[in-house]
Amino acid sequence: MSQEQWKSKIGFIFAAAGSAIGLGAIWKFPYIAGTGGGGAFFLIFLFFTVLLGAPLLLGEFVVGRRAQSDAVTAYKKFAPNSSWSLIGKLGIVTCFILLSFYSVVGGWIIIYLFEAIRGGLNGLSQDQYGALFGELIAKPWSTLLAQLVFMLMAIVVVAKGVQKGIEKASKIMIPALFILFLILVIRSVTLDQSIEGIEFLLVPDFTKLTSESILLALGQAFFTLSLGVSVMVTYASYLPKTQNLPFSAISIIVINILVALLAGLAIFPGVFSFGMEPDAGPVLIFAVLPAVFSQMQFGVIFFINFLLLFLFAALTSAFSMLEIFVAATTKHDKTKRKKRAWTLGLLIFVLGIPSCLSYGVLSDVLVFDKTIFDLFDFTVSNVLMPLGALLISIFVPLKISKSALYEEISLGSKSGKMFFNVWYYLLKYVTPIAIVIVFLDVLGFLDKMISLFK
Q1: Burial class, 150, CB count within 10 angstroms (exposed 0-12 / middle 13-18 / buried 19+)
Q2: Whole domain around residue 83: which residue ranges?
Q3: What's the CATH number where 208 sits?
């Protein structure tokens, strides 16, 4: 069965960058940066993304392109008759859970877009916007319908295939995302007293940096690049041998950092200009930003602009998560793609129903003192994704020979032996240690150890 491939180099970079951008860079980064210290957090995040995220991203690219297979089969090719294929299966399970609650947030974006267009977000106070957010996400039928619409958008694109679906959509959405972002940033930085917000993001104040915010930056560096779930393995399996893998990885890292920067510049100047707090947490986008935009001239138009780019980013990530299931179940049989995309996409929607209702009719259902949505989010972000990233960082140098790794990275690339050796050292030694530190923090071991020395 012939393997489908990306039609162009830029198409792959846009698709992979779209997968990485998603909610991590636009929804999660601003509120984590807001609570983590602003400029100091951004600097640490930048450091971790380049030093630790980039090596793992390139590692996933190497596995995918060399194997030319779906995530599960790829690991089997390198380690037959072993349990290493569980990495691919873990990635599929993780993406299944992740997309089930990710699509809920996608639904919230659609609801807000509808409300903004019909004028339902006009003229409220900040407290009223917070209350409105709670009311909107508590409505069962509208949130379920919006979640379904979001999933249908993803299904339609993935069902069309790699070139005609994912690549074509990404080539439109990623440039549009940057254009919309630039419009927002220009408006935001020209507000009165916007300099406070710019300084908050770009001027490091290390007195605001805590051990918790450093670990948040480390975890965000992995989460925001879609690492540890073998999505990038799947995407790289569609690459020709002429593609420059180091250049592709660096391009995606740069795009991801740039989007995080633009998100901060679009949000924080406005937040500070109107005397609001940047540490509002996860509701920053849905409860604080509408209040910020409502005080701007033509604010509704700018907020609709923001919601559109937010939706584009969420969809490009959803494409990659749905694609990993489709690739694993079709084994490159194009005749099965459409049926599998619809079947799996609708199954994910069904799995996401409890998360969708966890702020409404199921709000009293708590597991470990968490709502179903929060439990899924915590499990994926703090357990499954770091575990997958750790296993991949161990697998690549352990199960693929150094000569084979060098050969794969050198194909279509002018990077030399020194670049390879630095990458290999970081992936084999530094990245696993960093991920273990994240795990220890999640389990509470670091707090216990620190308390012993106080």
Answers
A1: buried
A2: 9-452
A3: 1.10.4160.10
